[in-house]
Amino acid sequence: MKKILYIEDEPYLARIVKDTLELRGYEVLHKKDGAKIMEQVATFGPDICLLDVMLPDIDGYALANHIRNMNPQLPIIFLTSKTQPNDIVKGFSSGGTDYLKKPFSMEELIVRIENQLKIMSRDTPAAQSLPDEVLLKNYKFYPGRFELHTPSGVVKLSNRESQILAQLCAHTNTAVDRRELLQLVWGDDSFFNSRNLDVYIRKLRGYFAGADGIEIVTLKGKGYHFVVS
Asked: What is the pTM of this model?
């Protein structure tokens, strides 16, 4: 039985979501605020988190950051009425892996939950074909451990970061098509996933900042070129 940690301060909505998900076979732990959530992540061991953004004691973005630092691979879906482009980018930057606008249908929420769990459980073809250790100049990438060893320390990658980097490594010094990358990692090339990809590419560039001979080059209208020279 998959476990869902659900943070929502609106009681009527929370009851509907919790009851429906439990009828679908999920174990749901609902909390109305972010207090002691890190303890819940450790003790409950959720497979996925559903977070409202507007919470009474801490906003969902900050909460997602804390969760992401504790568990880099845990999927996080934001459920919110805040859907301006900068809100979406902020959500993905803080560690969200999907974003669902309120009001939403339960069927769409369940599909998104199942999609996130499916993505979490699989490797992309590139990740499957890579060796356990990938040498990138003075960096080392360990796809199976979600780790990038840099000259300044070890970076714990999220599942998505690791999948994207695996695709780039599998196509070192060749072009990677943006739409193909979206399809391989997310399963579709929707606007929201496209914005999400932009956020992850920026993060990966940050990890290689200052590296001599390593660069992720954007090919306008095409995709990316992972240069390792």
From this structure: 0.65
